[in-house]
Structure formats: C-alpha cells, structure tokens
Design a protein that fits this description.
The complex is a heterodimer.
Chain A (H helix, E strand, L loop, with lengths): L1 E2 L9 E3 L6 E5 L7 E5 L2 E4 L4 E4 L2 E2 H4 L5 H10 L7 H13 L5 H8 L7 H16 L10 H23 L13 H10 L5 H14 L6 H10 L5 H10 L9 H9 L5 H13 L17 H16 L3 H18 L8 H11 L7 H22 L7 E4 L14
Parallel strand pairs in A: 1-3
Antiparallel strand pairs in A: 5-6, 6-7
Helix pairs in contact in A: 2-16, 3-6, 4-5, 5-6, 5-10, 6-7, 6-16, 8-13, 8-16, 9-10, 9-16, 11-15, 12-14, 13-14, 13-15
Chain B lengths: L8 E5 L7 E5 L2 E4 L4 E4 L2 E2 H7 L2 H10 L5 H13 L5 H5 L10 H12 L11 H5 L2 H19 L13 H10 L5 H13 L7 H11 L4 H12 L7 H10 L4 H13 L17 H16 L3 H18 L13 H7 L7 H19 L9 E5 L3
Helix pairs in contact in B: 1-9, 2-17, 3-7, 5-7, 7-8, 7-17, 8-9, 9-14, 9-16, 9-17, 10-11, 10-17, 11-17, 13-15, 14-16
The chains are: A mainly alpha, B mainly alpha.
Chain lengths: 400, 375
C-alpha cells in the first residue's frame, strides 16, 4: 500500500504505477483524493506543468488544430506518427457533424432566448435518442461513438449559435475543420485564418485539465456503463453552475463595461476593497500563474490590435496588474477564463455562448478519460457517514 | 466527531472510491451487515407498511414525517406541479418512439429544464421550492415517455389520485386496482433513498458546482441508466422471462453461477447480506403475480434466487432490489423497457435530499488523478 502525503494546494502525482487501495489526506470537496489513474494528461500546478500524453502544452498550443489534439488525447498518438490513421479519424470526425433533421428541428423549435447550455443539453439528449434505440445493447464500437460525440457536440453548438442570431441551419463543408466551421456559424462568413488560429488555440488549451466537475461527473456516469449520451448530458449539467461555466460570462460582464485602463484600475481597487470578486481570478489548483495564461495573453494582445480595439487589451492588462498587485500575495492569480473570455469575444462569440464553446474544447479530454475509464470500469460508489436521528418507530396519530 | 465536509482526514480507499467517506449525512442509513435500511431513523419495513410515497418523500427531504397539515400542503404542492410545460411533451415529435423510454424521458426533462421558474437562482430558498416540481414533472413526463412507446398521446392528470395511482393512470391509461397501487407505492418507498450510490454521487458533484437542483437530478439519471445500476432491473427480469418452468431456471442458474456469470440484480457494494428492500417487496410481488395468474413467474424467481444465493451467498452475493422490482411492474402491465423509470422517479427524492443537505456547507467536488508515466 502506498501512502500519499499531500497538501491542499498540491495534489497531482506522477508514478510508474498505482497500487490500490491508496491512503491519502482527504479534504473538502475531495481535494487530495485519488479518483483515478490516467495516461491522458499530467497537471502539476506546483511547477506549472501541463502535458497531454507526455507532450508539454507549450509545444502543442498554437501549433496544432483541435482535431489533431483530440486525436492525440484519445488515441495517445501524435498525428504525424501515423498520417493515415489520423486522416481516417479526421474524416470520421467531420462526417459526424451531420445531425438528424429532427434534432435540428428540436433546437429550432426552442425560444432563441433560452440559455445555450440548456439548449445544448436538450440537443445532446435528443441526439442520444436517435443514436441509441431500445434494441441497442451498447456492445458496438464504443471508441467510435465517443469520437462521434465530440463532433456532434461541436455541430450542435454551431447550430445553436446560428439559431440564436436568427439564421438558418449551418451546412458543414467536409473540407473545413471544426474550428473553421464554428467560426462560420458565429460570424456568418468565411473566417480569417487568424481567427481559426485563435479558436484552435483556445480549444487546445481547454482540451483537458484534470478531473473538473463535468469530466468527473461523466466518468462517474460512464462507470455504470450508461450510454455515452448520458455521460455528456450529466457532464453538461455540471457546466451550468456559476463556479464553472458561468465564469467567462462574468469576466465579459465586468471588463466590457470599463472605459480605459485608469477606470479599470479604480474599479478593481474599489471592488476588492468592498470584498467583491473579480471574475477570472483564483483557481483551486493553481496558487501560482497558470501556464495557459501566458499563451492566451499574447494571443489576446495580437487579436485586439488586429480587430482595431487595442484598448481592450490595455484595459485587461490594467485589471490584471491591479488585481495581481493586491491578490497575488494571498496566492490568488489570474486564471484561464480571464483571457479566454476576451479572446472568445474578439472572435465573435456573444457572452452566453462561452460555456458551450468551452465545452467543445473540453470534450476531447473528457471523452479520452471516459474511454480510459471504460477499458477497465469500476463503479464509483463512495460512502457517507450517518450522523442523523437514532433508530425510531412510527407513532400513529400524526400520520394516516 | 469531526465532520467529513470540513478539515482533513487520512483515509484509505479503493478504486471506484470504495470505502471513501465523502460527507456526513442525516438522510439515510444503510446497515449492510445486519440487513437494515433506515430513512431519517425509521426502518424501511415500517414505512412501507404504513406510509404513502408522498409521506416518505416528505420525510426524506425534510427530516420528519409530516403532520396532517404538512401532509395536506405537500400533497397540494405536488398536485400543483402535475402539468409540465407543453414544450417538453412537444419534444416527443422529434424523438423516435423506439428510443429507450428513459432516454426519451431524459430529453423531455432537459426541455422542461429550459422553462423552469427562476432558472438562474441557485440559493437555498430557490432550491427548496424545486423538489415538488421535479417529482411531479418527472412523473408526468415519464408516463408520457411510456405512452410514446406505443405511439400514444400523453394523458392529463387525475387530481384526486395519489402520486402512484396518477402516474400509473398516465402511463397505462386506466386506473389500477388497490393491490397494484399499494405494491407500486411500496416499490417507490423502498427505492426512494440509498446513500451515495453512483447516481447520488453524480448529483452531488453537480450541485457542488453551484448548479440548480434539476441539473443535479439529470446527472443522477445518467448514472442510473447504466446496466450496473438502475438498468439492472430490466436485465434481471429479462433473465427470468426466458423460463416458464422453475426447473429449467434452476438448471440455467446453476450452470451460469458455475461459469462465473454476473447475474444482474444480484450482489451489492454495501450489502453482503440479504437486501432489506427485497424482503419488503417480495410479498407484494408474490401476491400480485398470484392475482394475475402468473405464479409460474414467481416460482422461476424463487428458483433462480435460491440457486444463485446458495452458490454465491457465501461470497456475500444476494438478490438486490433490482431482482424483484420487475416482478411488481410486469403484472401491473408496465413494459419491460420502462422498468428503470419507477426506480428513477423514487430515487430522485434521495438525490435531492443529499443535494439540499450538501449545498450549504459543501465545497466543489474535484478530486485528483495520478498520472501514469509511460514506461
């Protein structure tokens, strides 16, 4: 048996193998708990390391498309290792964007004002009804299904984006990848290569990040051998909460209202002084700068200039500087949502679309981990400790 | 005793978080050594004997059996929510009728979730207004999904029927008799709460992110649909349905047990003894099957259970609740593919109670993973 000594701020480990059972310190929200062993990615907040399948994030971000990273996370192979396999993977992925007409009709029958995360959840659930029938015994090729879902989620998000802005259903071109087609749905025109680059970058950075709530929920559901659409509906349910998916929306609400860097600094100072929260700051894992932020900050600066709104970057920088000056000594740093929200905004996503767009990226890692879970499934079934009323009898009179 | 939700303890646990204590609870107690299950301190068999599902749901959520005034208000609240948004039923137009009814029902719930009151509020006051709505909408939508299996339209509720009678009326199109109603009601009572099983745990993770109660229930449903969990009652019944004669069934069970077959509806992570829920439900199933001239089905069940438990009982494998619920639902006339639905309706009560208990003091659930380096 292996005993782990852990600190609340540092709970990732890399080992050659893991022998169950394990002993560890268990803190609030199961921090310190080892819920699985994985080869998908390594996150070490103490050194600022993030690796997908052993490749550092710095070598991947900005240099590979989302499709390539999905391939890496799910299969463990870099596309260059086997170009024929990747090409099949990519073709399958792109072909899966064609959704059943009924599912598109269901989305289009919804009030466009409904929050896109709820629309997406309904769309995924309806899609599951089309893909899995009563006769389906789930014995087929799971791996393929999971790939398919990644592309289907992206297609649903694109359809939702088009529906929200009153445009007709999106028709996908097989020649174009997922990022290109998503931007076409968001911008209603053929996107610039710079914007495709930014969206791929965002999705690559969001593709996997440990057992966050949507991922872990999906793994728990997968462990019951539920069909993969249930995994995703459950994962999307965990995205709704303001502690997660809502974070990017808060950032935009706060930043877009600020006029210039000076106003930004004043706003930050008064917000912190009055005990308010600055969106996009603080992370349970990182008590040091998040490695993904550095990459995103550069991209936001470039895009803000390119779009003719350099002041947006200056304002963001002012918010970050002022917030860090006050919060860094308390171990609170800027997190990925801060610059990611601005970058999504710059490439044409409106605020409520942010959680859905984030989820498209996360699907690659989520499905990779679900797939890993299913190679040797073990039902997640922890315990609670009863501290309630001692055993008692029913006394008739009060009741029927 | 230090509470499990704050501070740090050293714990030892296995894969699947087996033996890991996640939190303290006052909701239910599973005694897997002495074959007992208590809700809020009351033994299950007593609740099944003298309470309705509505009363037990109130107990699980609120901590005490309702006074007559509380019971009347709770009934009223449940009845007020019996008509879900029309959009949720309209969604059936876009769903093939041969999809699994649980998946159809899930889809209707996801649509209904687009039309909930005060959707963005997740404070405790708003969350407490949700259980009655979720339970009643769920029942109406699930009944609609079962009707849709036969291409039939949903039926409006009957206000003077109780929860079980109304659900069965909306699902089957007729009023069931008293025996059927009581047996079904007891099946809901025995399945209304069961600690942090996979589905309740999934619900707890979701509520810990600051989500609304309905989102937590949807996550729970996902886990419940799996064959290792709620879907097992359908599979267990399908195993029994292969046989007309107890003798053939016995031989089959012997061969399968010797071959290491994992019988659906048998064995449990916590019970290494007979499942108290089975004990409570068996007489109802037996009587109902006798009423319908289906006693052979009962004998087949007894034969399989006898064989499995004599072969595997020494290893702690006994019939669990999934082995028996189908024998209540089949004589009532529910289609086999819908068997997971009543379990889902009932157990939502427990999920919601755990979520409402966790939310005020619980941190976001986010465990870690060990990275296995490539050799």
């Amino acid at each position: 048996m292996k005993a782990f000594r852990t600190l609340s701020s540092n709970y990732s480990w890399a080992l050659d193998e893991l022998d169950w059972p394990v002993t560890s310190e268990v803190g609030p929200g199961l921090s310190g708990v080892i819920a699985s062993a994985t080869r998908v990615s390594w996150l070490d907040p103490s050194s600022g390391t993030l690796e997908y399948r052993g490749v550092p994030i710095e070598r991947l971000a900005g240099m590979h498309s989302y499709e390539e990273i999905a391939h890496l996370l799910i299969t463990g192979n870099e596309p260059a290792d086997d170009e024929a396999a990747f090409s099949t993977f990519r073709d399958n992925l792109r072909a899966s964007r064609e959704l059943p007409e009924d599912v598109i009709a269901l989305i289009r029958a919804m009030d466009p004002g409904i929050h896109p995360t709820r629309m997406l959840r309904a769309g995924v659930s309806a899609l599951g009804c089309h893909e899995m029938t009563v006769e389906d015994d789930l014995s087929g090729d799971r791996h393929w299904r999971e790939l398919r879902i990644i592309a289907q989620i992206a297609a649903l998000v694109a359809q939702i984006a088009a529906h929200r802005t009153g445009r007709g259903p999106v028709l996908f071109h097989a020649n174009y990848d997922i990022a290109h087609e998503m931007l076409r749905a968001l911008q209603d025109r053929d996107p610039d290569p710079e914007d495709v680059h930014s969206l791929d970058l965002l999705w690559v950075l969001f593709a996997d990040h440990g057992l966050d709530a949507p991922t872990f929920t999906s793994m728990v559901v997968a462990s019951t051998l539920a069909d993969p659409y249930y995994n995703v509906v459950a994962g999307l349910s965990a995205l709704r909460g303001d502690k997660l998916g809502g974070a990017g929306e808060t950032v935009l609400e706060q930043i877009l209202g600020l006029e210039d860097p000076e106003a930004a600094r004043l706003w930050v100072a008064s917000t912190i002084a009055s005990g308010g929260r600055i969106g996009g700051f603080g992370h349970r894992l990182y008590h040091m700068p998040d490695p993904r932020v550095v990459i995103l900050r550069k991209e936001v600066a470039a895009q803000a200039r390119r779009k003719g709104t350099p002041e947006l970057f200056d304002i963001a920088r002012a918010v970050e500087d002022e917030a860090l000056r006050q919060l860094a000594p308390r171990g609170v740093h800027v997190n990925i949502n801060f610059y990611a929200a601005l970058l999504f905004h710059l490439i044409g996503a409106d605020k409520p679309m942010l959680p859905c767009l984030y989820m498209v990226g996360r699907m690659a890692g989520l499905m990779a981990r679900v797939h890993e879970e299913l190679e040797n499934p073990r039902l997640y079934r922890p315990l609670d400790r009863y501290v309630g009323h001692p055993i008692r009898r029913i006394t008739r009179g009060a009741e029927k | 005793m230090r509470p499990y939700t704050s501070g740090y303890q050293i714990q030892t646990y296995n894969r699947g978080l087996e033996n890991l204590v996640v939190t303290d609870t006052r909701v239910g107690q599973i005694d897997g050594k002495n074959s007992r299950l208590m809700y809020r301190g009351y033994p299950l068999d007593e609740l099944a004997d003298c309470c309705t599902f509505e009363e037990v749901a109130y107990l699980i959520l609120h901590g005490n059996l309702p006074t007559p005034q509380e019971a009347a208000m709770w009934d009223e609240e449940l009845k007020n929510w019996r008509t879900p948004p029309q959009e949720a039923f309209d969604a059936l137009k876009y769903i093939p009728s041969n999809a699994h009814p649980l998946a159809q029902y899930r889809t209707m719930l996801t649509i209904a979730a687009c039309h909930i009151p005060e959707a963005s509020r997740t404070d405790m006051q708003a969350q407490w207004r949700r259980p009655a709505r979720i339970l009643s909408w769920s029942a109406a939508l699930a009944a609609g999904a079962i009707r849709h299996l036969n291409g039939k339209k949903p039926l409006p509720p009957k206000d003077h029927f109780g929860f079980s009678a109304n659900f069965l009326y909306q699902a089957l199109g007729h009023r069931v008799n008293e025996h059927e109603e009581k047996a079904f009601d007891v099946s809901l009572i025995v399945q209304a709460e069961h600690g942090l099983h996979a589905a309740a745990f999934a619900a707890l993770i979701v509520i810990s992110t600051g989500a609304d109660l309905g989102s937590a229930v949807l996550a729970g449903m996902g886990a419940l649909s799996g064959v290792r969990h709620g879907g097992a009652n359908q599979l267990a019944f399908e195993d029994l349905a292969q046989f007309d004669q107890a003798k053939e069934a016995r031989t089959w069970a012997q061969v399968k047990a010797a071959g290491g077959y994992r019988f659906p509806g048998y064995g449990h992570r916590i019970y290494k003894c007979p499942d108290p829920r089975v004990r409570v439900l068996e007489p109802y199933a037996k009587n109902l099957l006798a009423d319908k001239g289906m006693t052979d089905r009962w004998r087949v069940y007894e034969a399989v259970r006898g064989e499995v438990e004599s072969a595997l009982g020494p290893k702690g494998i006994y019939a669990n609740v999934d082995s028996i619920t189908g024998l209540v639902y089949a004589p009532i006339g529910l289609p086999v593919s819908s068997f997971p639905i009543p379990f889902c309706l009932a157990i939502q009560t427990g999920w919601m109670a755990h979520c409402l208990e966790y939310q005020p003091r619980g941190a976001m659930i986010e465990p870690g993973a060990v990275y296995l380096k490539d050799q």
